[in-house]
């Protein structure tokens, strides 16, 4: 399972594909949520872009999203504080 709840916070295990044609949450990929982003994986651009993209998807401030692990990896563990919305593609129970 690629997600878990810690009280009101959503913890996501994500597999990021940088330099894609579009920003999109693709869906479940084994133990990860696959996310495509257009930013290149250099100088932290992909991480910043990922946080901006997810903030829009979950309707939270950018400061409500933190990368817990995987700062320099395509596999990341993210924490989203009190998400206002869960994107339809995720279908969480």
UniProtKB/TrEMBL annotation:
Superkingdom of source: Bacteria
Example of a GO cellular component annotation carried by this entry: cytoplasm
Pfam families found in the cross-reference section: DUF167
UniProt cross-references to InterPro entries, sorted A to Z: DUF167 (IPR003746), YggU-like_sf (IPR036591)
SUPFAM superfamilies named among the record's database cross-references: YggU-like
Family recorded in the similarity comment: Belongs to the UPF0235 family.
Listed name of the protein: UPF0235 protein COA96_01620
Species of the source: SAR86 cluster bacterium
